[in-house]
Amino acid sequence: MFDYTVETSKSKDEAVRVLEENLKEQKFGVLWNFDLTAKLQEKGTDFDTPYTILEVCNPQEANRVLSEDLLVGYFLPCKIVVYEEKGTTKIGMPKPSALIDMVQNDSIKEIAVDIEERLIGCIDKTV
């Protein structure tokens, strides 16, 4: 499966706040908190689904994978989305292990799996 997605009883804004705290504990910084809804509305669309994209990065891990294969930079920073769908808040991300499969480099697969497990832990702790 390409993604990892869970539901939470928290509001979108509360889930984003708690998720950012959990990411910080794992040494992932939020490089960008992007309110996609506001941006699309600013550009004249009628998109009204609450949707936030967090771009997150752990500098040491980014250095490790980029040192092995520069193509991995195409997937960086990692993205985690928090959005509302039919009254339910969801948190999800593309799995790093699924993305790494595309570059066909077994030497960094283990790193991707470790990062994935840590990000999933942050998401699960948010729920």
TrEMBL record:
One Pfam family named in its UniProt record: DUF302
> From which domain of life does this come?
Bacteria
Q: Which CDD domains match?
A: DUF302
InterPro entries reported for this sequence: DUF302, TT1751-like_sf, UCP021774
Listed Gene3D superfamilies: TT1751-like domain
Q: Where is the DUF302 domain?
A: 34-96
The family database entries (PANTHER family) matched by this protein are listed as: SLR5037 PROTEIN
Report what the protein is called: DUF302 domain-containing protein
